[in-house]
Amino acid sequence: MSIKLPQLIAKFVQAKNDHNSDAVIACFANDAIVHDEGQEIRGTNAIKKWTDASIEKYQFTLEATGLVERDKETVLTAQVSGNFDGSPVPLDFHFIINDGKISRLSIRLTGD
Questions:
Q1: What is the pLDDT of residues 51-107, one digit of tens each?
Q2: How many CB atoms within 10 Å of residue 22?
Q3: What pTM does this model have?
């Protein structure tokens, strides 16, 4: 399935799949907040550490399978494959984008 993604989200997915944390960070606002695995990660320095750690730990890739825009949020559903139990798993990436940068990202199991 090929889905046309908004440019910023396409860059985020490509950077994640390339395991390029510098390119991932370039997608975020300096004061961005990420929620993932019960953690709140604030600011690009912390987000870079989270990105580096998740790339090293899981060696994952994302394949976009759905996209919904509602209110001020864009929800990307992706099949995430990697080095973890239960792979692949569908996850929803809830993006809030301001001024061309990701200001908030929450990653949840699809349907949660």
A1: 999 999 999 999 999 999 998 999 999 999 999 999 999 999 999 999 999 999 999
A2: 10
A3: 0.93
Residues, the chain: 112
Q: Measured between alpha carbons, how far is 18 from 94 in angstroms, rounded to an integer?
A: 21
DSSP codes joined into one string, 44-58: HHHHHHHHHHHHHHH
Count of C-beta atoms within a 10 Å radius of residue 99: 6
Q: Is 16 exposed, middle or buried (0-12, 13-18, 19+ CB in 10 A)?
A: buried
Tell me how far the alpha carbon of residue 9 is from its chain's centroid.
Answer: 8
State the virtual CA torsion across 62, 66, 71, 72 in degrees, nearest 10: 20
Q: What angle do CA 24, 33, 88 make, to 5 degrees?
A: 55
